[in-house]
C-alpha cells in the first residue's frame, strides 16, 4: 500500500535561513507527505531504533510493508546510516547552466569570452537545429538527457537552463526535466542582432524572437499548467546579441503573464564585453542601465556573472530586486575575473551559484561551492590591496558558499519559501550524502569515495571534507518534491545488497538446481 | 616464464621535452625491458593486430603465455583500447606534499598560512610521535599507507614528501614507498626555533636537527643503497622555524654526501610570513637571501610556493639553479596569492607542480594541473592591470600545465633524463588513462567516469576533457620502473574478471563442495 508519509531518519544538515554563516546539524527524524512532497514535521529526540518505534506508535504509523490486515497510516522509512557517515542535505540549485554546451565541457583552450563564443559555443548550439519541423535533433535528445542525468547525479534538484534558439529542442529539454523529475526553468535563447550573432545561428527575425518564445511558453504551460516542476524563462542571451526592439519585446512578454515570467541573461562578465556594450549602447550609463532601459531588470530576473559591476550598477540591480548568479568556475576558466560576492551580499543583493556549463567545466554545484571559496580567498590580491583586515572580509566560508548553493539559489529563483532548506512546510528537494567508513584505499579498489573520514572528525569537519573532496560518488539519493529521482544501491533503506549479491545468489541457486536435477536422475 | 619485455600497445600521449606547448600523440607500440624498467624502443606504424603479430615475429618475440616448448624472447602485452578511449600518459610528479597532513585534507576553514599551521597542522603532525623508541605510531602506519594509496591511485609515480620531526615514522614512510613501489624523496622535517615552533612540536635541540636527520638518511640508504626508488631529502621546514645554526648545519649535511642530497623547504608563500621573515632576519636582503646566506639554495633545492618573489629573488634562485614547486590549490585555499609561473619560466627557472597536502585539499596532481590553469587565467586581474595583451601571456595552457606535472616535475627533482616522458631510454613511470565509451549516465549507475566522450572528439580534445573532468576513476593502471604498482580490473590485458567474479567462483565451488560432501554420505 502506498505510504502516506516518508520518514527520513539520521543526520540532517542545512543552512538556517537567518544565519548563513553556520551549519544547522540535527539528528532525528523528519517526515514528508507523499501527497504534496512537503516537510510535515521533525523530531530531533529520535536517536535509537526504540525511539523510532515509539514515535511510530504515538503517531499511529505502521511500516508500508506491514501485513495488510494491520491498520494505521502507512509510512516508508529512509535511513541515513550514522556508521557510514551518511546525511541529508538540501538539493543544490544551479542558477545558470547552458544545457546544449554540455559536450564542450573542458573545451575552451586559452580563449576568453568573446572568442570562446565564436570558436566553441555557437557552432555547438547551432548543431541542435533539426531539419524536420517539430522533431528535435537526435543530438538534442542525447545531450539533454545526459545533462539532466549528470546534474541529478551531482545533487542538483533545480536548474535554470539556457537551451538554444530552437523551439523543438527546447521543448524536449522541458519534457525531459519533467519526466526525470528535476525542477527547472527552461529558456529558449533569443539572439536577433546580426552585428554579433553569427549568420548560421540567429533568430530568423526580431519578431520571431518573440513569437518563437511564445511557442515554447505555451508548450511548457501545456505540460505543466501549474508550473510545479517546470516553468518557462525569457532568455535574451546578452546585450550584444539582442536588438533594443527584441529586448523591449521580451520584457513586455514576460510582464504579460500572471504571475510575470522569469527572465535570465548575462551581465558584466568580461572587460572586452563591457567595452563592446558601451560602444553598442553609447547612450546608456552602464551595462546594467542597458537592461534597465528596456525593462529587463525585475525581481524575477537572474543575471549571470556580474564580475565587474560598478557600485552604481550594483545599487541599480539591488533597487530593481534582480538577482545574481555567481559562476566562479567559469569566471576563472575563461579568465573573466572574480565576482566580489561579499560586496554584493553586503549591499543586500540576492546571490546564488551557477555551474555555467560549458564556460564552467563541471556540472557539479559542489565544484561551484569549492571554486566560490577559492576565488574569494584570492580576491584580496585583486586590484588595489585592501587595507588592514579588509581582505579577510572578502573570504566566503564553506558554510556561506553552501548557503549560496541552497538558500541563495532558492531566493534567486524566487522559491525561498519552498526549497533550499529543511524548514517545516518546505518541499523535500534533498540529497543523501554518503561519505562511507574509513577503508584503506587498497591497490585494486579505491573507487567508492574520495573522502577519507578517519573517525575522529566532528560533523562540521566531515561537511568540510565533503565540500573539498566530495563528488558524485558521494550522492547516494536525490529527491524532488518527496520523490526519489536518482538513487544508488540500497538508498530506499531496505535490506537489498549490491547487484553482486544478486549475481552470487543466482549463481548459487543455479548450481544447486543443476545438482538437484542430477540427483533426481540418479 | 617471466617476460623479457613488456610491449605497450595503443595511444601514447606526452609532452616533448623541447616543446612544452604541444602534446605529442603517438599510436603504436612501445616496449620496456623488465630488467631495468626502461623504454627500449617504439614503433609508431603498429595499428592493427596483424601489424603487432608482424612486429613480434620480426623481433623473435612470443607471448609470455605461449606453450613452454616454443622458443623465443617472452614478452607481455598491455593494450590501451582505442574504442574505450584509453591512453598511456607519463606518471605525475608531486614535487611538494606533506604526508602526515593528509587527514586534514579539506580542513582549513578560512585561515591563512600562519594561523593554519598553529590551528590544524602542528597538532596533527605532533600526533605522529610514538611513546616507544623505534616503533612508529599506529597513526603513522594508517595515514602514510593511505597517502601512498591515494597518490598512486591518482597517477603519482614520484612524490617529494615532507614527513614529521619523528625518525621512526619518517623511516616507515620510506619503507612504505619502497614496498608499494612509489618513487620518493623522504624528508624528516627540521624545526628547532622555539620562537615559532610550538613547544609540543619541536626538535629537542639544534644539534638534534642534524643528528636525527643522519639517522633517517642512514636508514633510507640502508634499504635502498642506490637510491633507485627512495632517497633522503634534507628538509628545514622554513625560515621562521629554523635557527641559522640549524640551516647552515643542514646545508653542510646535504653537501657532505656524494652526490649531494636534495634539499626542500618553503619560500615566500604568504605576505605575513614574508614580513615575519624580514623581522627575524633583518640583515638579509630578502627571503631568498636568507636561504642563500646559509647555503640552502643549490641546484638540488626544491622551494615550495614562491608566490611573492621579487625580481631580485627570482634572479637569485635562477642563478643558484634552485627549483620551484608551484602549488596552486594550496595557494588559493589559504588565500596566499597566485604564483606568476610564466614569469618564472621566462626567466629560465625550473617549475613543477605540487599538491601541498593539506594546504592543498587534493592528493591529485590532475587537480593541481586544473588549478594551475585556472589561477594563471586570473593573474591578469592581480595587481596593476597588465598592458595590452600582457594578461594573455600569463595564461598557462592545458598542455603547459601537463608539462609542469610531468617534465617540469622531473626537472625539479633532477631526474629529467629518467622520468616525465616517453623518450627511449627513460624509465617506464606511467599511467594508463581510461575515459570510457559514451554511456548515458542512467539513473542508477553513473559511477564509472565523470568524463563524457561523445565520439566526435579528436585526441587533443579528449585530453582536455580528461584534464577538466577526470579523476582517480580514470586511472586504470600505474607503473613505476616498468612494474605495475596500481591497477584496476583487467589492466594487464589478461582475461581476469573483477573481484566479484572471484566471489562468485568461490560461492559456486563452496556450494558444489557441500553438495558433493552430502552425496558422498548418501
UniProtKB/TrEMBL annotation, chains A, B:
GO terms of biological process kind: guanine metabolic process
Domain Amidohydrolase-related: 89-485
Pathway: Purine metabolism; guanine degradation; xanthine from guanine: step 1/1
GO cellular component: cytosol
Organism: Petromyces alliaceus (Aspergillus alliaceus)
Pfam families, sorted: Amidohydro_1
Protein name: Probable guanine deaminase
Main EC class the enzyme belongs to: hydrolase
Cofactor(s) annotated in UniProt: Zn(2+)
Residues spanning the signal sequence: none
Described purpose of this protein according to its UniProt entry: Catalyzes the hydrolytic deamination of guanine, producing xanthine and ammonia.
The reaction(s) this protein catalyses: guanine + H2O + H(+) = xanthine + NH4(+)
Keywords of the record: Hydrolase, Metal-binding, Zinc
Single GO MF descriptor: guanine deaminase activity
Keyword match Metal-binding: yes
E.C. numbers: 3.5.4.3
Amino acid at each position: 500500500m502506498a505510504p502516506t508519509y516518508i520518514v527520513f531518519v539520521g543526520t540532517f544538515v542545512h543552512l538556517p535561513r537567518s544565519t548563513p554563516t553556520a551549519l544547522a546539524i540535527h539528528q532525528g527524524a523528519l517526515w514528508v507527505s507523499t501527497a504534496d512532497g512537503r516537510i510535515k514535521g521533525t523530531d530531533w529526540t529520535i536517536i535509537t531504533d526504540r525511539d523510532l518505534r515509539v514515535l511510530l506508535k504515538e503517531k499511529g504509523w505502521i511500516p508500508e510493508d506491514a501485513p495488510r490486515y494491520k491498520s494505521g497510516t502507512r509510512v516508508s522509512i529512509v535511513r541515513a546510516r550514522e556508521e557510514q557517515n551518511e546525511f541529508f542535505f538540501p538539493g543544490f540549485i544551479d542558477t545558470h547552466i547552458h544545457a546544449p554546451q554540455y559536450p564542450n565541457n573542458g573545451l575552451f583552450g586559452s580563449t576568453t569570452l568573446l572568442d570562446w563564443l565564436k570558436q566553441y559555443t555557437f557552432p555547438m548550439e547551432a548543431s541542435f537545429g533539426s531539419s524536420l519541423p517539430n522533431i528535435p535533433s537526435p543530438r538534442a535528445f542525447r545531450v539533454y538527457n545526459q545533462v539532466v542525468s549528470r546534474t541529478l547525479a551531482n545533487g542538483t534538484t533545480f536548474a535554470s537552463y539556457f537551451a538554444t534558439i530552437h523551439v523543438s529542442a527546447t521543448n524536449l529539454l522541458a519534457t525531459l526535466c519533467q519526466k526525470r523529475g528535476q525542477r527547472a526553468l527552461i529558456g529558449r535563447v533569443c539572439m536577433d542582432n546580426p552585428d554579433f550573432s553569427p549568420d548560421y545561428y540567429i533568430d530568423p527575425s526580431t519578431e520571431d524572437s518573440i513569437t518563437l518564445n511564445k511557442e515554447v511558453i505555451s508548450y511548457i504551460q501545456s505540460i505543466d499548467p501549474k508550473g510545479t516542476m517546470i516553468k518557462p524563462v525569457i532568455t535574451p542571451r546578452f546585450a550584444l546579441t539582442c536588438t533594443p526592439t527584441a529586448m523591449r519585446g521580451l520584457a513586455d512578454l514576460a510582464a504579460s503573464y500572471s504571475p510575470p515570467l522569469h527572465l535570465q541573461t548575462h551581465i558584466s562578465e568580461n572587460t572586452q564585453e563591457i567595452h563592446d556594450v558601451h560602444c553598442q549602447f553609447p547612450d546608456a550609463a552602464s551595462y546594467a542601465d542597458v537592461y534597465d532601459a528596456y525593462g529587463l531588470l525585475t525581481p524575477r530576473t537572474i543575471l549571470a556573472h556580474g564580475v565587474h559591476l560598478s557600485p552604481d550598477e550594483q545599487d541599480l540591480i539591488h533597487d530593481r530586486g534582480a538577482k545574481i548568479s555567481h559562476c566562479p568556475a567559469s569566471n576563472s576558466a575563461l579568465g573573466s575575473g572574480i565576482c566580489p560576492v561579499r560586496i554584493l551580499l553586503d549591499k543586500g543583493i540576492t546571490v546564488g551559484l551557477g555551474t555555467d556549463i560549458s564556460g564552467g567545466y563541471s556540472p557539479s554545484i559542489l565544484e561551484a561551492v569549492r571554486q566560490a571559496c577559492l576565488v574569494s580567498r584570492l580576491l584580496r590580491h585583486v586590484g588595489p590591496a585592501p587595507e588592514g583586515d579588509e581582505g579577510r572580509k572578502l573570504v566566503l566560508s564553506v558554510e556561506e558558499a553552501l548557503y549560496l548553493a541552497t538558500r541563495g539559489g532558492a531566493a534567486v529563483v524566487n522559491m525561498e519559501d519552498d526549497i533550499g532548506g529543511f524548514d517545516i512546510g518546505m518541499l523535500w528537494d534533498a540529497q543523501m550524502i554518503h561519505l562511507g567508513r574509513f577503508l584503506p584505499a587498497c591497490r585494486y579498489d579505491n573507487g567508492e569515495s574520495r573522502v577519507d573520514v578517519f573517525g575522529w572528525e566532528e560533523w562540521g569537519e566531515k561537511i568540510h571534507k565533503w565540500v573539498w573532496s566530495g563528488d558524485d560518488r558521494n550522492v547516494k539519493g536525490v529527491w524532488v518534491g518527496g520523490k526519489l529521482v536518482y538513487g544508488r544501491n540500497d538508498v530506499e533503506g531496505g535490506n537489498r545488497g549490491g547487484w553482486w549479491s544478486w549475481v552470487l545468489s543466482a549463481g548459487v541457486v543455479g548450481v544447486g538446481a543443476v545438482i538437484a536435477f542430477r540427483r533426481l536422475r540418479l
